[in-house]
Specification:
Layout lengths: L3 E2 L2 E2 L5 H36 L12 H7 L35 E2 L4 E5 L5 H8 L5 E3 L15 H7 L2 E2 L4 E5 L9 H8 L4 E6 L2 H15 L6 H5 E3 L4 E2 L4 H4 L3 H9 L7 E5 H6 L1 H12 L10 E4 L4 E4 L24 H22 L7
Parallel strand pairs: 4-7, 4-8, 5-7, 8-11
Antiparallel strand pairs: 1-2, 3-6, 9-10, 12-13
Helix pairs in contact: 1-2, 9-12
Length: 361
Amino acid sequence: MAYRVLGRAGPPQPRRARRFFFAFTLSLSCTYLCYSLLCCCDDFGRSRLLSAPRCLHGPSAGGQKLLQKSRPCDPPGPTPSAPAAAAPAPRLPAANHSGSQKLGTKRLPQALIVGVKKGGTRAVLEFIRVHPDVRALGTEPHFFDRNYGRGLDWYRSLMPRTLESQITLEKTPSYFVTQEAPRRIFNMSRDTKLIVVVRDPVTRAISDYTQTLSKKPDIPTFEVLSFRNRTQGLVDVSWGAIRIGLYALHLQSWLRYFPLAQIHFVSGERLIVDPAGEMGRVQDFLGVRRFLTDKHFYFNKTKGFPCLKKTGSSLLPRCLGKSKGRTHVQIDPEVIDQLREFYRPYNIKFYETVGQDFRWE
């Protein structure tokens, strides 16, 4: 007997063959289902919690065709079709990082080293900059004597950034002998703390002259510049090297605006023999803890003054530059005696005013 089957001729399939075909198809579908769950169950299970897109699969199909079209789930993160830049990294607050993000705010200084030239101001500045609670401008801005017309905003822009717990400091020694400086600083802030580094005015004048001579070797001798008439003992107070040493006169201009308690005087001589002691008093005056101690200093015999020992942040000890510690030019002892006699009444007046005897005689 012949049987006709749609599309093809042949004997009818036995029931056992049909069961085998059905079981094979079912097994293949289950295999695909298990494969899909193994690839994607982790991301799928977390997608609701993380708001991540669920795994997407190809359209349902049976057998080998479905396996060929399916793909594993993509790993978390941007897909190949979406560039990585589409998900920018979060921006971190500047207060937590130094690097490209800058710390703190630029503020007008709360303290100034106002003088005097060749007294030891650079040493005080470099020493106090080691303190973690003090941030200081390294250069001399000369704002209150030469650049006042630029305005306070310009002045503030020069300052280092500081935190609320830090003090901003700057140094310009010429302020002490500038007539307008006390009033201008007072107008900026009447609470400004002032530091004056003083030194024997005769030694200071010789150091000043030595520095100038290194730049201008053709200038007249120290003796010629110091006197209008040496025979009569008339000192030329118009010469800056002499005029700066009249500390008592210059101080009067400052006391018109600031109480003496707001001015701290550092001894240039004691700074050399006892840097920790002098800097301890500076720290007390600024109202910061005594961070700088004896362990920070050592005496450099070559230069003749103390230097900072190396710290964890620096590989070498820190000494002032070659312009500091120059050997002074030799001056006739009689000239030195005449100048000491000239300065004596001014020194005594200065001692009485500030309540300290600096022993310059």
